[in-house]
Amino acid sequence: MNHQRTLFCLWLIALFVAAGCTTQPAQGIASTPSKPAKEAQTLTVLAASSLTESFNELGKVFESQHPGVKVTFSFAGSQQLAQQLNQGADADVFASASSKYMDAAIQSKRVNQADVKIFAKNRLTVIFPKSNPAGIQELKDLAKAGVKLDLADKSVPVGQYSLDFLDKAAKNAAFDPSFRDNTLKNVISYEDSVKSVVAKVTLGEVDAGIVYTTDLNADSAAKVSQLAIPDALNTIASYPVAPIADSKNAALAADFVTLLTSPDGQAVMAKYGFLPAK
User: Fold this and answer.
1) Among 27, 241, 247, 271, which is most exposed with the fewest C-beta within 10 angstroms?
2) Separation CA 268–CA 167 (nearest Å)
3) Cα–Cα distance list, 6 to 2, 10, 66, 118, 167 (Å)
4) CA atoms within 13 A on the CB side of 21
C-alpha cells in the first residue's frame, strides 16, 4: 500500500512539473500584432490621346520616383475627358490638348484655375500613305476631286485646329478661294480622336489626314509620309494640365504636374516631338 501511495505521489509531482513547463503568455503583456502591409496607391490621369506615348513613359518615371504608387491613364479626346469630369468621374489629374476643355473642367468646378499650367505645345501636319494613291504633292492637292480625306471631329481639339487651317488657307492668296469648301467635300469621316485618324491613314483606308506632328512615332512614320503646314497657316496647340480639385491623392497629383514641367518631364515631351511650353 505504501509503495502504491509513493508511486501516486511521484506521478502527481511529475504532472505539476510538466504543467509548469508549459509556455504561458506573460500576464499583463499583450502580444504585438504584425503591421499590415502599406496599401498601394493609384494615381489616375485623364489625358488627351495625343499624349499616349509620352505619358506612358512619364508614368514609369513617376512610379520610379514614388515607390508603391501605380499610375493609370485614361486616354481619349479632350472633349470626352472633360465630359467625364463634368459627370463626376473619379480622377486625380487632367491633361488636355486644348484650353477650351480645361476651361470646361474649371466651369464644372473639377479644376481650380490657379492650378492650371501649360506643359507642352504641338503643331499640325498632313499625313498620307507611303504609296500615296492620291498623288498628293502639296497642300492644294487636298482639294482635288476624288481625294479621300479623314479629319478629327471639330469637337476634338485637332479637328478644330484642322478647320482653322482651312479657314486661313482660304484667305491666303496662294490658295484658291474654294480650297476650304472643296477640301471639306473630300472628307469621308470625322473621328473622335486623333489616333483614329492616324490609324485610318496608316491602314490605307484614306488618302490623307491631318494630325499632330507628335503622332508620327516610329511605327507610323514607317507607313506614312507627311506634308508640312507652314506657321502662317498652322495652329500651335497649347496643352494645359491641372490636378483635380477633389482628388483623393492631392499631393501625388501635384507631384505629377510638377514632373511634367520639370527638366526631366520636358525632356521626355521633347523626345516625342512636343514643343516646349515656353
Assistant:
1) 27
2) 33
3) 6, 6, 73, 95, 116
4) 6
Phi-psi region of 259 (alpha: psi -120 to 50; beta: other; left: phi over 0): alpha
* Per-position DSSP letters for 138-189, written without gaps between them: SGGGGGSTT--EEEE-TTSHHHHHHHHHHHHHHTSTTS-TTHHHHHHHTEEE
pLDDT digits (tens, 9 = 90+) for 229-272: 999 999 999 999 999 999 999 999 999 999 999 999 999 999 99
3-state secondary structure (DSSP) of residue 46: strand
CB-CB contact of 270 with 276 (8 Å): yes
- The grid coordinates of residue 190 equal 470625322
CB atoms inside a 10 Å sphere around CB 276: 11
Backbone angles phi, psi at 180, to 5 degrees: -60, -50
pTM: 0.80
Per-residue 3-state assignment (H helix, E strand, C coil) for 240-272: EEEECCCCCCHHHHHHHHHHHHCHHHHHHHHHC
Backbone angles phi, psi at 131, to 5 degrees: -70, -20
Inter-residue contact 124 to 167 (CB < 8 Å): no
Please compute, for residue 271, the number of CA atoms within 13 A of its CA located in the half-sphere on the CB side. 13
Strand 224-228 and strand 237-243: pairing? Answer: unpaired
Q: 135 in the Ramachandran plot: left (φ > 0), alpha (ψ -120 to 50) or beta?
A: left
The cell numbers describing 165, all together, are: 487651317
Three-state secondary-structure class, residue 205:
coil
pLDDT one-digit tens code per residue, 137-192: 999 999 999 999 999 999 999 999 999 999 999 999 999 999 999 999 999 999 99
